[in-house]
Amino acid sequence: MSNPDTGRKTGTAAGPALTLGLRQNLAQFMLLVAVNALVGGTLGQERTVLPLLADQVFHLDLYTSALTYILAFGLAKAGTNYFAGTLSDRYGRKPVLIAGWLIAVPVPLLLILGPSWGWIVAANVILGISQGLTWSTTVVMKMDLVGPSRRGLAMGLNEAAGYLGVAGTALATGYIAASYGLRPGPFLLGAAYIALGLGLSVFAVKETRGHARLEAASHMAAHAGAHGELSNREIFTLTSFRDKSLSSVSQAGMVNNLNDGLAWGLFPLLFAAAGLSIEKIGILAAVYPAVWGAAQLVTGAMSDRYGRKWLIVGGMLVQAVALGMVAFGTGFGIWLAAAILLGLGTAMVYPTLLAAIGDVAHPEWRARSVGIYRLWRDGGFAVGALLAGILADAFGIPAAVAVVGALTALSGILVAVRMRGSDHVITTEGDPGIKSLP
């Protein structure tokens, strides 16, 4: 039975009706928002501390060596994203979420006790696998619950929670490190997040795969090649190359995380070399994801109303300007302004890219398409770490930041040229729909 005011419903005598919609699933949705904040916090424990640990504890001379942990994290997370989508379609969302939290359990211990840099890199391989499973699954579960009508808002809330978790933890660990040292204090916070996230996922989170099946019953394919009966290979090629919108989104996501990997690994070292204190470095490390996180509460909903394409293009260009300010500016004030601008640009892009995937991907294989997009996107961490390290060793950190800024601008231009602007439309009832495209 369908009702435009209450959302789609289905049910049998064997169990309660399933309903699509944010309001109808608000309790479970907000629980998943909280879980993803913990996922983000688990990553945030590293944002301020690990670059300083590489420099001050392990005395790594080359930027390329110091950024190996981001390379390891990016490769592990990118690969796991793909399998997270496939596994959640096959076995359900909740088991994959729980597995991700269980895998994260040893990470804080490795970061605290690691006697060599190899231990830190190994911890980030494990963390990447965990993040690939947990973050991908919370994204898919929220898409399942809300259906098509508020997908941008849902992704904005999801990514806002995750990156506010990153920001708050980056700020907190900066102060903890300044007061108590780089180890073990900052990583005890991460251990607490993992314990709480695992408990909530086991005892409170509910399976959402049935909601995706409900939506699939009335889904309209974006074009003839995006129907529900595609193989894994067909889904991969469609998302990565063949579909103009999906492939545009995938490359933009990759470049976005390329510059995020640069910010994560090199910004603290640039700021430290300029003589900033650990507290100020912590502020700069936190402001960027804080603005990114908070602004997504607005930008995700904006993409529902005004469409995805030009928000993505504008966001990539704003990021490019911010990176130019970091490369050519000096001092806390200009870097703070750049961090704010970089956060705003990323907020324009991040939830919008995910919502754009949901617009085109069929509910029967949406989880796999999200996983493939996130494979490309988080592969950007690895590419960014490698590219930024090589450029910084050869020409210095400012030159590396400038090159990545130029690549970010080019990515936005590619989206403007290639991506369709008509996949996401507003129906007369106020719900987004999917056009049938030639």
Which percent bin holds the helix content? over 70%
Total helical elements = 17
Structure summary, number of beta strands: 5
Over the alpha carbons, how many angstroms does the gyration radius reach? 21 Å
**Dominant shape:** globular
The sequence of SSEs as H and E is EEEHHHHHHHHHHHHHHHHHEE
What is the straight-line distance between the termini? Answer: 31 Å
Low-confidence stretches: 1-8, 10-15, 425-438
* Structural class label: mainly alpha
Largest sheet: 3 strands, antiparallel
Q: What would the average pLDDT be, to the nearest integer?
A: 85
Q: Beta fraction of the residues?
A: under 5%
Strand order of the largest sheet: 1-2-3
Write the layout of secondary structure elements.
Elements: E1 2-3, E2 7-12, E3 15-19, H1 26-44, H2 49-56, H3 63-66, H4 68-91, H5 93-104, H6 107-113, H7 117-146, H8 151-180, H9 185-203, H10 209-216, H11 232-242, H12 244-273, H13 278-306, H14 309-328, H15 332-360, H16 366-395, H17 397-418, E4 424-426, E5 432-434
Antiparallel strand pairs: 1-2, 2-3, 4-5
Helix pairs in contact: 1-7, 1-8, 1-9, 2-12, 4-5, 4-7, 4-16, 5-7, 5-9, 6-7, 6-9, 7-8, 7-10, 7-16, 8-9, 8-13, 8-15, 11-12, 11-16, 12-13, 12-15, 12-16, 12-17, 13-15, 14-15, 14-17, 16-17
